[in-house]
């Protein structure tokens, strides 16, 4: 069995060693331009067009990240990049769920306990206890009810918060109010105090968090974007912050990355910024999933995590 590997920043050797331990007899090689040799599977992140083009013998392509928008964007420009018969798989969790939980819980508890306000008071040398929020009214709305959205929802309900999710299609999540479709979007937004974005990146979700949406949240609401920068209209968020309708935001992803040094988000006192590392690919967990998925494919079964190319996730 032959596996080709391409990642713009990761070294292929540790992946080759790890997969050989999990799949005895497998041959893993780093793909280089001009390599048209045999391959049964491909592990990729932002792959060059020529890496996958014409490889009809592939039994599966595994995207080494939480999203597959890099591949889908390339497919729109170059439809022949990936043969239609080749299934594309995303890493559903592989340790990313726990990382997203950590980020979301840390941020939400900080807002709930008003630690952001106390940090600003410290800068002003101000000693002033502040009234707390009520859990009953501190409603958390999560955009996206996939594996990561469900994981974050579960972690926040265990802290006693009222949590709701919105997705394109109906979902059933224990202890979480479920909304779906365009018809229920306004109801989902109404009364939401914290908006967390974990949507997949598709043409339908680009710019979904805009001024109209932000204005439907509670006055003094919070925004946490953990998905993709394209989901958020950054200028609209700044307007809502300056109007004091949105109290604060925490952003891990941006339209342009790295975020330009002159971008006004850097200077806003109510915006926390991290460099797109809310959840990173954990090699051991990722290789466990990939090895298990390959074993299922070799046995004639279809593993979970297959991407619907029409839906984009």
From TrEMBL:
<keyword id="KW-0520">NAD</keyword>
<keyword id="KW-0521">NADP</keyword>
<keyword id="KW-0963">Cytoplasm</keyword>
<dbReference type="InterPro" id="IPR036291">
    <property type="entry name" value="NAD(P)-bd_dom_sf"/>
</dbReference>
<keyword id="KW-0560">Oxidoreductase</keyword>
<dbReference type="InterPro" id="IPR006140">
    <property type="entry name" value="D-isomer_DH_NAD-bd"/>
</dbReference>
<dbReference type="GO" id="GO:0051287">
    <property type="term" value="F:NAD binding"/>
</dbReference>
<keyword id="KW-0670">Pyruvate</keyword>
<protein>
    <submittedName>
        <fullName>Bifunctional glyoxylate/hydroxypyruvate reductase A</fullName>
        <ecNumber>1.1.1.79</ecNumber>
        <ecNumber>1.1.1.81</ecNumber>
    </submittedName>
</protein>
<feature type="domain" description="D-isomer specific 2-hydroxyacid dehydrogenase NAD-binding">
    <location>
        <begin position="107"/>
        <end position="278"/>
    </location>
</feature>
<dbReference type="GO" id="GO:0030267">
    <property type="term" value="F:glyoxylate reductase (NADPH) activity"/>
</dbReference>
<dbReference type="InterPro" id="IPR029753">
    <property type="entry name" value="D-isomer_DH_CS"/>
</dbReference>
<dbReference type="Pfam" id="PF02826">
    <property type="entry name" value="2-Hacid_dh_C"/>
</dbReference>
<dbReference type="GO" id="GO:0016618">
    <property type="term" value="F:hydroxypyruvate reductase [NAD(P)H] activity"/>
</dbReference>
């Amino acid at each position: 069995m032959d596996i080709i590997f391409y990642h713009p920043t990761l070294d292929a050797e540790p992946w080759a060693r790890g997969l050989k331990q999990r799949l005895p007899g497998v041959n893993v090689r780093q793909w280089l331009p001009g390599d048209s040799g045999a391959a049964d599977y491909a592990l990729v992140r932002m792959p060059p067009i020529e890496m996958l083009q014409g490889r009809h013998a592939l039994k599966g392509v595994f995207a080494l990240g939480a999203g597959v928008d890099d591949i889908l964007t390339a497919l729109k420009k170059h439809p022949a990049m990936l043969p239609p018969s080749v299934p594309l798989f995303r890493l559903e969790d592989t340790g990313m769920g726990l990382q997203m939980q950590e980020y979301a819980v840390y941020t939400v508890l900080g807002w709930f306990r008003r630690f952001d306000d106390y940090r600003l008071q410290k800068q002003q040398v101000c000693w002033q206890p502040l009234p707390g929020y009520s859990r009953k009214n501190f409603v958390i709305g999560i955009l996206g009810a996939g594996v990561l959205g469900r994981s974050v929802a579960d972690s926040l309900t265990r802290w006693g918060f009222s949590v709701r999710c919105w997705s394109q299609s109906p979902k059933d999540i224990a202890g979480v109010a479920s909304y779906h479709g365009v018809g229920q979007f306004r109801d989902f937004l109404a009364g939401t105090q914290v908006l967390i974005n974990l949507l997949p990146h598709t043409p339908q979700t680009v710019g979904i968090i805009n001024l109209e949406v932000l204005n439907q949240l509670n006055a003094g609401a919070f925004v946490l974007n953990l998905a993709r920068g394209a989901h958020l209209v950054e200028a609209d968020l700044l307007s809502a912050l300056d109007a004091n309708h949105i109290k604060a935001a925490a952003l891990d992803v941006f339209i342009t990355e790295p975020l330009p040094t002159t971008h006004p988000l850097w200077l806003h006192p109510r915006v926390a910024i991290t460099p797109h590392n809310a959840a990173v690919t954990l090699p051991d967990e990722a290789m466990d999933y990939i090895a298990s998925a390959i074993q299922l494919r070799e046995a004639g079964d279809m593993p979970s995590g297959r991407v619907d190319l029409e839906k984009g996730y």
